[in-house]
Amino acid sequence: MCVYFTVVMAILTILIGMITxxxxxxxxxxxxxxxxxxxYERRFNVYVVALNCYQELYKQQPQQIAKRTYDVIQSCxxxxxxxxxxxxxxKILDKMKENSDQVCKYEDYVSKNGRIHSDDPQTAQELLxxxxxxxxxxxxxxxxxxxxxxxxxxxxxxxxx
Length: 161
Fold this sequence. Notes:
Blueprint: H1 2-57, H2 62-82, H3 89-113, H4 121-153
Helix pairs in contact: 1-2, 1-3, 1-4, 2-3, 3-4
């Protein structure tokens, strides 16, 4: 009887060990999927920040543009750790920041002086031209960002559970 009890205990110990191993393996897969999802969300957020800034450029509100520009700066710094350096995503975001700064300068000038200031119409025209060019360049950089970021945020390479 003692031998049977020992055999049953050994079998139960092995069974419990196998179940524990299975649970540990499942938890490892869940943790891996969570890390991938977190990384995806952070990468996608970089694109969303750029898109939100682009939308604010056309609303012509200097405070909102400045806020979105700050978000672009933060995304630019974060992108250095989220993407490969050779993709140049941080450089694209940096140029977007410069463009939004230019638009913000013009909108700030307009909010203080009106669209065409009678004392200095040349400055207003120069700022308008720079802001218009900056908006066009921002749009081009947004397209570049979409192309560069696409491999990181598309689901074609994701395997199901």
